[in-house]
Amino acid sequence: MDISLVLVPVDFSDSAVSALKYAKKMGPLWKAEFVFIHVVDSRDVIRIANYTKEPGEEVRERLTNQAKQNLRHFLSDWESNNLVKETIVSYGYPFQEIAIKARELQTDLILMGGYGSKGKGEIEEIFFGSTVEKVVRILPCPVLCVPMGWSDESI
User: Fold this and answer.
1) Does some domain include residue 155?
2) Is residue 147 predicted with pLDDT exceeding 50?
3) Contacts of 134 (CB under 8 A, 6+ apart)
4) Handedness of CA 103, 106, 112, 116 (dihedral sign)
5) Is residue 13 included in any domain, yes or no?
6) Cβ distance 108 to 6 under 8 Å?
7) What is the mean pLDDT of residues 25-40?
8) Cα separation, 75 vs 53, whole angstroms
9) Is residue 35 in some structural domain?
């Protein structure tokens, strides 16, 4: 299987850092282009808007702008800029938006960081599964999950 386009969801966590390290290592070998996506979770926007009494659209715009800045910063040390095809900040439920973008872009692979078998321990993940698990269930393309703490010495 040729891998020419890889979608990398980024939530700015330590597990996303592991995925970025893996992408840096494997990108030149695959000769692939990478699309990085961050999804502003609509549930977070609703919670913040309810708490701060701000209009939801203002909260969404603020979080989207913050995410764009964070994504630029997160990728600032990417050494092979020619491999970064695009960065996307989307809005909605993360697993759904990742699936939608993967289908739209016809990606060959999704590369995600994961927390491993212990998870983060949040109730939602225990009962409903992680974003990685949800993406795996609904996408026909391969999903490669890099465990948190992965380093290139592992290869």
Assistant:
1) no
2) yes
3) 95, 128
4) positive
5) yes
6) yes
7) 90
8) 33
9) yes
Q: How far is CA 10 from CA 2, 26, 57, 98, in A?
A: 23, 17, 22, 10
Contact 22, 151 (CB under 8 A): no
pTM listed for this prediction: 0.82
- Between CA 23 and CA 29 the distance in angstroms is 10
pLDDT value, residue 46: 95
* Rounded Cα distance, 90 and 39, in Å: 5
Domain, as residue range, for 125: 5-150
Question: The domain that contains 125 carries what CATH number?
Answer: 3.40.50.620
Query: Given pLDDT bands bounded at 50, 70 and 90, which one contains residue 119?
Result: very low
Is residue 135, in this structure, part of any structural domain at all? yes
CA distances from 52 to 42, 46, 58, 65, 153 (A): 15, 10, 11, 18, 45
The arithmetic mean of pLDDT across residues 77-93, rounded, is: 81
For residue 81, name the pLDDT band (cuts at 50, 70, 90): low
- As a whole number of angstroms, the distance between CA 18 and CA 32 comes to 18
pLDDT: which is higher, 78 or 5:
5
pLDDT, mean of residues 30-49: 93
